[in-house]
Structure prediction request, 245 residues.
Amino acid sequence: LKLRQAKLPRTAQGDIIRDVEYIEYVVEKRGVIEVSRIVFPLVVVLTQDCDLQWDFQCRFGKKRPATQDKALISVLVAPIYNADHVFGGEQLSELEVNMRVIQRPPKTEGKQITNNQIPRYHYLEFDPQVALPPSIIDFKHYFSVNVNHLRSHREGFVGRMAPLFREDVCRRFAEFLSRIALPE
Amino acid sequence: MDGVDEQYLEGTQQTESSFPPSQEVGTVESVSDTPAELPAVEIEKYRIAKPVRKIMRAKLF
Prediction:
């Protein structure tokens, strides 16, 4: 997988962005405010690109529409973990969350992940010129980021997936969300 | 570059799933098909990086 560096003035589907924060909670007690956030080293943007484009047009286009009907509130993203950490069940060890150890390829389970046969995960192997190790998107850990905040974090832009790859990721994400659990 | 054609915005063709004419929205800061490259120090950083939790407390005045 190669990444494109064509930097748009807006967030786009398939953007890979580093150091994205998720706010867990904000509480205020007796005059002390506490903010807990998780910093994800890498995420991929999953929101539909047409929605992102309309949102940008709505906010910053030269001929803005009369209403902000198409403005978004947040952008959906999913974390990208180092594949090695995922197989070892240690991708969330800094958050004191224990994950399941997954048998590495060529064992069957690991092979199913690298072949993208498990709905929850999307395996990515980057072009040698991209300075990222084999990685895994975990669709179950998706979260949202304020659209303006993410746009202002453009220094975190790593690159953009080529269209076919990003569409594959987003199609698999949609399938993950539309799973139906049937009674046994 | 001009913004999106108003007729397009107000016309019946506008749907949630349709794209605005992309060539007319904003400007592209740079265009290149070259793969993204990170400095060596960042390669190491992202080989080992895991999500971390940060808690901030501040007194309100």
Remarks:
- Chain B has two helices and one strand.
- The mean pLDDT of chain B is 57.
- The two ends of chain B are 47 Å apart (CA to CA).
